[in-house]
Write a structure and sequence with these properties.
The protein is mostly helical. The protein contains 18 helices and no strands.
């Protein structure tokens, strides 16, 4: 990396107005821990009037790293309608919600949607997803009601609303949104799988769920989320050996704690307690408080630590 910096410095000296070289030098210096130099190069790029959105975004990231929250928000807000807008907006959303500034955020997002009409649907989805992830489900649901009234044919918005409905336990409403998506897009593997998994997990309609998941699997045969759903519905139908095959494939491709919770439970119920413990312990190292993992262990009456036996 140090050698790369030296070479880029030589190139930049020969072409001092080359914004791409200056930007590369900024990234290299940040990687080497020289933030002062990195910022100086980014300011030079700004002075040239090039790559402004990228510069403001990375300056915002640096401000966060330095604990300058307000400065970071100000920098992110200067990112325009380009490739960095979504990431910059997501960063603003996270900072505002972490500080409990829900209404300030809502007002800002309304202004942003007015400024960028083609992005209105995307910005609705981003904001609603952040509310949902931060436990503000009622606010997220209210926003999605507004958004769907404006974009009634939006599969993305209806899918986001179905997630909130499912988490609230309103399975009928979640199913209605997912079936609306499937009616418009019969080959939407994500919606087929989501409905199949919801019916598997929250109802006793397992045959219907399996049919939906099989449809999704034909469309996306290697998608870990669908493999996980297939394994889970097979387990609910008592086909443990087949369930383990699908869940093992899912976990190999996507070692997520929720998949680990499923695989561990099926291994445990099939008598392979050592295998189950190993899978669960690995998941706990990744996320010791994962909701689905904790629910599984509690339901099975298992006390487990990441680096110890029961």
């Amino acid at each position: 990396m140090e050698a790369a910096r030296q070479q880029f410095e030589l190139l930049s000296a020969e072409a001092p107005g080359n914004a791409d070289l200056l930007f590369s030098l900024a990234m290299i210096n940040e990687e080497l821990g020289d933030r002062v130099a990195s910022k100086a190069y980014l300011r030079k790029v700004l002075a040239l009037g090039q790559r402004e959105d990228e510069v403001y975004f990375f300056l915002g990231r640096m401000a966060i790293a330095e604990g300058n929250r307000d400065e970071a928000i100000e920098l992110f807000q200067q990112v325009g309608d380009g490739a960095e807008l979504t990431r910059a907006t997501a960063s603003i959303v996270q900072l505002r919600l972490a500080a409990g500034e829900d209404q300030v955020l809502a007002d800002y997002m309304d202004r942003l949607r007015q400024s960028y009409p083609p992005r209105r649907e995307q910005l609705y989805a981003l904001e609603a997803s952040a509310y949902n992830d931060s436990g503000r489900q009622e606010r997220g649901l209210a926003l999605l009601e507004r958004a769907i009234a404006e974009f009634p044919e939006s599969d993305n918005l209806r899918y986001a609303r179905s997630v909130i409905y499912e988490r609230r336990g309103d399975i009928a409403a979640a199913e209605a949104d997912l079936r609306s998506i499937i009616a418009r897009s019969p080959d939407n593997a994500t919606a087929l799988n989501a409905l199949g998994y919801t019916l598997t997990n929250r109802t006793d309609r397992h045959d219907e769920a399996r049919t939906l998941i099989e449809q999704a699997l034909r469309l996306s045969p290697n998608e870990p989320a669908i493999l996980d759903s297939m394994g889970w519905v097979l387990y609910r139908q008592g086909e443990l050996d087949e369930a383990i095959k699908y869940l093992t494939r899912a976990y190999a491709n996507f070692p997520d704690p929720e998949v680990a919770a499923h695989l561990g439970e099926v291994l445990w119920m099939s008598g392979n307690k050592t295998g189950a413990m190993n899978v669960w312990r690995g998941a706990m190292r990744q996320d010791p408080r994962h909701e689905v993992l904790m629910e599984t262990l509690d339901r099975l009456g298992i006390v487990l630590q990441a680096d110890a036996d029961t």
